[in-house]
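Lay summary. Proteins are chains of building blocks that fold into shapes, and those shapes determine what they do. In this project we predict the shape from the chain. Here is one chain we studied, written as its sequence of building blocks.
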Amino acid sequence: MNVLIAEDEAPAARRLERLVRDRLGDRITGIAVAATVEAARTALAASRIDLLLLDPNINQADGFSLLDVPTIAGGMGG
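And here is the predicted shape, written in a compact code that computers can read:
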């Protein structure tokens, strides 16, 4: 399972990463952290993400814009 944490506050991102590792353990293939919408969009386009933890106001930008189908590699459920 590939996880993307889109969070601009480093302490919150670290807490989320720790929580994901604790809960999902060996099911995790990789975890990426993106601090901007642009970095998250790049990560989404580059690989299949199974779980996205999204800050809706990431770095003063609209985090929900990441949920647009063209942003996600292979589209929704792809």
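What the prediction tells us: The longest helix spans residues 10-24.
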